[in-house]
Amino acid sequence: MKYILHLTFVCLSLLTPRMCIQGNQFNIEVSRSDKLSLPGFENLTAGYNKFLRPNFGGEPVQIALTLDIASISSISESNMDYTATIYLRQRWTDQRLVFEGNKSFTLDARLVEFLWVPDTYIVESKKSFLHEVTVGNRLIRLFSNGTVLYALRITTTVACNMDLSKYPMDTQTCKLQLESWGYDGNDVEFSWLRGNDSVRGLENLRLAQYTIQRYFTLVTRSQQETGNYTRLVLQFELRRNVLYFILETYVPSTFLVVLSWVSFWISLDSVPARTCIGDSEGSGRSQYY
Q: Which residues cross the membrane (predicted)?
């Protein structure tokens, strides 16, 4: 029995180093294949600094934007804001990420932590969030010439100053403005990729109380204490649907008023009937308003 245990121990001692060596070789092969299958990753591990913008100290980075408006879920007159879900896509060129070939590669969105990305924010936004189901709704795509496509799915509530003097036959003008938080015009320049065609989805939206009459894009400058910033503006006009208010407000109100007149044609002796009509009209008005 002791001889068998001793022989087993000797065999394990001889096989363990070989297994470790083979395991290490396997890990090296996997790591090498990972690096080779991810163009640009070699650059990230060889001096790439995500805290410095492309062409640091030189010409500003040109960032082209496009927008898809997925929905406008609510428009609040009391809070003077609207809530929209948008797909924000940004494109810029980072020469540090150039690789051979003419293909593009879509990367895991978690790799965005290793890249420089613009600090774009939504001006006059009250609250915003990035969708996280089932994973963070972000996209990173690298092109061989160093172009980076960065896409986000965002829901935001944005302030919109409204003039309600002509309510309910009014037209409101709202804006969605995008700007860099920290980089001024010397570091970052924003532009619409295709002018008005850079925005899609608004023409397909169906809103309960409004109709989107028209929209257009602008590029303006925002002068602040910390510098001069490029600001992209999407401006759209909302015309209130009068038919909606005729059906929801005027018709019920007219019906309640007419119902209150019925009591004048009822005999003075029919007190229960007159009381019932008055109570019904009053309770209907209180429930409606």
A: 242-266
